[in-house]
């Protein structure tokens, strides 16, 4: 029995798996992954400065996805006033921008960790353009699914969860048996283990139970992208990789 199997079977406390890297090596630099991580960190730093000045709530409500507002704008544009399409397009502009907003330190670190571990190898396989296209399109599509599933939601939906889920879905489709170098924290001891990549398909959803840790002070509240949107991102990533493999 491998050490990872022994620990997962016998360790009775809540298990926290921290992925570090895969064992796929390449000389190519994952520049888009670097860029995405940098942009997310920069915007989160901006959010922190807004939080200090009590302006974060207004910022998030302007650029986060608010399903009720988008659906109301659509209804007004279709049935009442064609000029309301301007409002529709303005609100839809929040779909890509909301990918770069985060509500807590734990959400940011969780997303960026998965982006780093699974994104860099995927970028080398897909190429920079297709990789960035997958990230943005899947993230936007996940937001649209969330609007459809929760049309009455009045608080902002933010986070790159749907985009990261697409990266994970595409990675699992391409490298289902790859071992991921991970760390298992046990009290004050950190034990290095190798975990199958497919395990993190499950762990991705479990870890989000901890996304409330280190939350920012956003008046009125905010929600992370729900599981319906993330599942849509996951399927989009897997389908995209399947299409690339066929071609």
3D architecture notes:
Helix 7 (105-126) crosses helix 8 and helix 7 (105-126) crosses helix 9. The protein is globular. It is mainly α and 247 residues long. The protein has a single domain, classed as Rhomboid-like fold (Up-down Bundle). The chain has helices at residues 3-10, 31-52, 56-63, 67-79, 85-92, 94-97, 105-126, 128-149, 161-174, 199-206, 227-246; strands spanning 18-22, 157-158, 179-186, 189-196, 223-224. The strands form two sheets. Strands 1-3-4 form a three-stranded antiparallel β-sheet. It has a two-stranded parallel ribbon with strand order 2-5. Mean pLDDT is 82; it is low at 1-14. It is built from eleven helices and five strands. The longest helix is centred in the N-terminal third of the chain and has 22 residues, at 31-52. GO terms for molecular function: serine-type endopeptidase activity. Residues 89-244 form the Peptidase S54 rhomboid domain.
> Portion of residues in helices?
55-70%
- Sheet with the most strands, sense and barrel status: 3 strands, antiparallel
**How many angstroms does the end-to-end distance come to?**
39 Å
Strand content: 5-15%
Number of domains: 1
CATH architecture: Up-down Bundle
Mean pLDDT: 82
CATH class: Mainly Alpha
Q: Which structural category do the helix and sheet elements fall into?
A: mainly alpha
Q: How many β-strand stretches? A: 5
CATH fold category name: Rhomboid-like fold
Strand order of the largest sheet: 1-3-4
Rg, nearest Å: 19 Å
Low-confidence stretches: 1-14
**What is the global morphology?**
globular
The succession of helices and strands, N to C, reads: HEHHHHHHHEHEEHEH
CATH superfamily heading: Rhomboid-like
Q: How many DSSP helices?
A: 11
